[in-house]
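Hi, here's the filled form for the chain we discussed.

Project: internal
Contact: R.S.
Residues: 479
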Amino acid sequence: MARRPRKAMAALADGAARVAIVGRPNVGKSTLFNRLVGRKLAIVDDTPGVTRDRREGRAALHDLEFTVIDTAGFEDADAASLSGRMRAQTDAAVSAADVALLVYDARAGVTPLDRHFAQWLRKRGTPLILIGNKAEGRSAEAGLAEGHALGLGAPVAISAEHGEGMADLFEVLLPYIEPDGPVVPVVVEAEKRFSADGVELEADWVEPPAGPLKLAVVGRPNAGKSTLINTLIGEARLVVGPEAGITRDSIAIDWEWQGEKVRLVDTAGMRKRARVQDRLEKAATADTRLAIDMAEVVVLLLDATLGLEAQDLRIADLALSEGRALVIALNKWDVAEDQSRLFQGVRKALDDGLSQIRNVPLVAISGATGKGLDLLMKVAGEARTRWSRRVPTSALNRWFEDVVAKNPPPAPSGTRIKLRYVTQVAARPPTFLVFGNRTDMLPASYGRYLVNSLRESLDFEGVPIRLSFRGGKNPYVKD
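And the returned structure, exactly as it came back:
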């Protein structure tokens, strides 16, 4: 059995685990602190240096509970100065913590002070997790790539202000807070796969699932979400009825399917934003969005008697934008008419309506009778497996060389664009970084070409993929 870090074991014996938030001034530490404690306890302002003393609060991230510590922004100053005394408070917080979150501004990129702070923290011996804050939007992609240079692993991309990336933060904090200890990576044997030219591909490395399959059931009001979950677990755990909008809070239920642990989350129905006026419905919709953010797989439930509507596509797009694996379930299949035509029509509408991804898994079920539920759970598990995959670097670059040779990058105004190398920097969702020169001149259509080829050639069908480009020299090639 994997062992917990010794400091974390001691912390659990005394009470809650302790998590320190550290970083240079004005990177969003207090905003993240407020996000974790669920209240605006710490003063937040654009002016650097607002926080001086370390502040503690009781934090909850999904079902994790711990003590979080907000610290002053690190500044390299004389020990007797105010900045030096603030740094001493930060030092004390880090020394007492079981794990420290080193936060930097992903939009600004890695600064010399970030590098100095990272080097200073390594000497303290406390486990470090690198956090790229303010990561909303494409402007943060280059800064997130720069985070690898700190030597602390891939940065966890979040936006503390908007609540994005909290599911990923949950995953990296889990080994230091749960008593069972950190998950040890394991090699999972995959079925033999072959490239188009018949060459056997290397086995994939699958990131081990962190605990139960986290599955959120979402959809428009009265699509049958609560009925589906009641049928899955075999008891009337959730209130159901013909009225739309019965569910308001997101309800999490722990369950087992064929020996595998699952955390099911029932959510409130999501209507078109313009129609949401009631304060309680607004709060319920926000709770549903949080459930999507915390999930690994999102099951979008459609009412087969109504077909696919524009709001269903909006909900699907939200789940994919959050990087979650998505499965579409056609519910009330037992009472649907002209089933074959309906299924094919929904399939085509999904492929046309979800421009960023095709072939999202589509399953016909009946939450009332139980038809198709075993298939639904099987497809959801397979979706998480693809969502968690890491492709070996050698296999990835064999694919890359072949796909670039078949369709080289365009040469705008006669300027040659050279793509040199690709690496997978993260999974859950699969995230890739392409190195080359003049990558800023690449048209968006070429990026879509690479993403589509990734899905088809390397078995990422139906999974959201994040692909970004990095200009400059290939760091894997020595002079």
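Let me know if anything looks off before we file it.
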